[in-house]
Design brief:
Length: 215
């Protein structure tokens, strides 16, 4: 099963960060093999990342720069507050906290724990990369995702179905790559109906049926 249209750059960059955490040389080389048409974009993104991380003295900020930094700070604060609330809610002992943390892990984290990449898992489960990326970012309403999708992922990653369902439960995740470089305050859109998204996609009818029916 393959997508009829290429993955957008922002989704590819997010998958790069999911798998490698930073746009390292290894990450750029690996993703350039799979997405050669984005190689120049990967290099620009890595350069922008390195520039932001350099912590060099900078001239007085313009209003636009201040707004960009404020947007990033607000995004980081929202994520930190959500993480803290989840952590506090699950603090019932060290062992229980570890179990709950595992249950909250996103699909990329579960894949890394299994020594896999999202690309590997997408191929094995016959889930298009565009939908795998959106599942990882919690972009779908959990109750609309068919049970057999959770089953495929659980078998591939050798975890329980409950861990898979927990991985896509919670508020949608902002696209990290684009929010990192955004000029305006990044915002995540509302979660979508999975079945409706499949039916409205550019996938072939055969691939849509393969996603929506258990086989």
């Amino acid at each position: 099963m393959t997508d009829a249209t290429p993955l957008p750059l922002d989704e590819v960059l997010d998958m790069l960060l999911d798998e490698f955490e930073t746009p390292s040389g290894e990450a750029i080389a690996a993703f350039s093999k799979q997405y050669p048409h984005y190689r120049a974009d990967f290099l620009r993104f890595a350069a922008a990342w390195a520039e932001e991380e350099a912590l060099l003295p900078s001239p007085p900020l313009s209003q636009e720069s201040e707004e960009r930094l404020d947007a990033r700070a607000q995004s980081a604060l929202q994520n930190a507050l959500f993480a803290r609330s989840q952590k506090n809610a699950g603090r019932t002992g060290e062992a229980t906290k570890r179990n709950k943390s595992a249950g909250r892990a996103d699909l990329a984290h579960l894949a890394r724990s299994a020594g896999r990449s999202l690309h590997d898992v997408a191929r094995e489960t016959r889930i298009p990369l565009s939908f795998m990326s959106q599942l990882n970012a919690k972009h779908f309403i959990p109750d609309t995702i068919p049970g057999h999708i959770a089953g495929r992922l659980a078998r591939s990653l050798k975890v329980g179905v409950d861990q898979i369902r927990a991985a896509w439960t919670g508020p949608p995740i902002m696209k990290r790559a684009m929010s990192y470089m955004a000029k305006d305050k990044p915002e995540s859109g509302p979660q979508r109906d999975f079945v409706a998204a499949v039916r409205q996609s550019n996938l072939s009818d055969e691939d849509k049926d393969a996603l929506l029916t258990e086989n």
